[in-house]
Design goal:
Layout lengths: L4 E9 L4 E3 H12 L3 H12 L5 E3 L28 H27 L8 E6 L8 H9 L6 E6 L5 H16 L3 E8 L10 H9 L2 E10 L8 E10 L7 E6 L2 E6 L3 H18 L10 E4 L4 H11 L7 H10 L6 H11 L6 E7 L3 E7 L1
Parallel strand pairs: 4-5, 4-6, 11-12
Antiparallel strand pairs: 1-7, 1-8, 2-3, 6-7, 8-13, 9-10, 12-13
């Protein structure tokens, strides 16, 4: 009999301070716009982002004009703000704090002792350091020194589903008890100047961490999930449609206007075939945790799969209240869904550079 993989102890963590989108656009205007036309376009972009509020490790207060000091006004026309080295130094300082907070919650909720963890899977695309977050988790949580480590790096918003895939394989392969942690500090990569593609990222991204415990279990808990399987599909002809590259002043994300069209064309045929492998169809899926890459991505998924608008209510709610936190965002959505005891099966879905769709079937 195939070993069941229980997904338990979902937990999330946010930076202490947040900012309303109406204030964020004023901040962005001061660093990005050079004329009234750009100011008008930026305001419209922020209004249409679907984001109302988000958190950042860079904020020192939730109110007031001087809420952060990391991104100072440009000193010259070519000034693009802190260097990538400066941004990575801040990542190294801040990322472990969020990760540890969420991980402690997961261990407590799942009733798991640190010494019971056999493997640690970390996920992040917004920062690099070695020793990294994984080493900090081992030290601060007092995990076993021989804990197996896997890092899923630089895969973008769908990184956590790859983390779930790794955890599932470890559990099925040898009964592992896996602590998974996704942490992103996307606000470190704010881009100066007027670059429309970068302005979209500025309007959407935020900081957060999410953790989970995966372990063998014959039956799922009432409010937990069981991982039935995961899937992946590289959409044809899409390699230039989403990118995430390291620049001299942070990481640079681009998002093509073709992404919604590609989703609407290719998602339903592939997903239908994938579900057939589990003896299911689209009509069998009772809940959806779709990563909110932005309002257009959510609309495209709704159209492609002919879903009712309320099917993605949890995704829109997380986007509106917390922004796009990249990889941990799926865990925020799943946590919200399990709190309401949604019916199963559920599909978690995210899109990342490639353009690749990643899915997890949860029951």
């Amino acid at each position: 009999m195939t070993m069941g993989v229980s997904l338990e102890g979902l937990a999330t963590s946010l930076p202490r301070h947040g900012i309303e989108q109406s204030d964020a656009v004023e901040f962005a205007n001061a660093l990005c716009c050079e004329n009234e036309e750009q100011t008008r376009l930026l305001a419209a972009l922020y209004r249409r982002s679907g984001v109302g509020h988000r958190h950042s490790v860079l904020l020192e207060a939730s109110e007031g004009e001087r809420r952060q000091q990391f991104f100072e006004p440009a000193q010259s026309p070519g000034d693009r703000g802190p260097s990538t080295a400066e941004r990575m130094a801040r990542y190294e300082e801040e990322a472990p704090r969020l990760a540890l907070d969420a991980a402690r919650k997961t261990l407590a909720e799942s009733g798991t002792l640190p010494e019971e963890i056999t493997h640690l899977v970390t996920v992040s695309c917004s920062g690099f350091s070695a020793p990294g977050v994984d080493i900090q988790l081992i030290k601060e949580l007092e995990l076993r020194r021989d804990v197996g480590r896997v890092h899923v790096g630089f895969m973008g918003c769908h990184g956590v589903i790859n983390g779930l895939r790794v955890a599932e394989s470890l559990v099925r392969g040898g009964g592992a008890r896996v602590l998974g942690c996704a942490v992103e500090l996307c606000s470190l990569h704010f881009r100066y100047g007027w670059e429309p593609d970068m302005a979209v990222a500025n309007a959407l991204f935020a900081d957060g961490a999410g953790t989970f415990l995966a372990r063998p279990r014959p039956q799922r808990r009432e409010r937990g999930f069981m991982i039935r399987g995961t899937g992946s599909c590289l959409i044809p002809g899409s390699e230039d449609c989403m990118s995430w590259r390291i620049g001299d002043h942070g990481f640079e994300m681009t998002l093509s206007a073709r992404v919604p069209e590609l989703i609407e064309t290719h998602l339903e045929p592939w997903l239908t075939t994938w579900l057939e492998g589990y003896g299911m169809g689209l009509d069998d899926i009772r809940a959806w945790a779709v990563h909110p890459g932005g309002p257009r991505v959510l609309r495209s998924v709704t159209r492609a799969l002919r879903l009712e608008d309320q099917a993605l209510e949890a995704s829109r709610g997380v986007l509106a209240e917390l922004g796009n936190m990249s990889s941990p965002t799926i865990l925020f959505i799943l946590d919200r869904l399990r709190q309401t005891e949604v019916p199963r099966p559920c599909i978690a879905m995210a899109f990342g550079p490639g353009l690749v769709v990643e899915t997890a079937l949860l029951v």
